[in-house]
Amino acid sequence: MKDEDKTFENERQFMKEVDERVEDRGALDLTYLIEEHKKEIWEYKQKEADWIKTDNILQGSKKIINELSAKLVEQVRVVSNLNYRIVELEKQLEKENK
Hints:
The chain has one domain (about 1-95). The protein is built from two helices and no strands. The chain has helices spanning about 1-25, 30-95.
């Protein structure tokens, strides 16, 4: 009976040691590696989301700049036409005053 108790106790101690080794595999444990890869994937997805957000802001800014540039060119054209009309009117007034 004592031998059976001793065998049982040895087996129990052995299983406890095996469980501890299984628990503490460190970098070689697949579950640990999977969790680390999941964390890395999450970080990359966050970075990608930030890049997409930044790209959207950039594209929007480019569109605004292009629209403002087109309006500026149009305004320069209008001012140029008005200056031309002013010069013509001044010439016309000079002719009338003579």
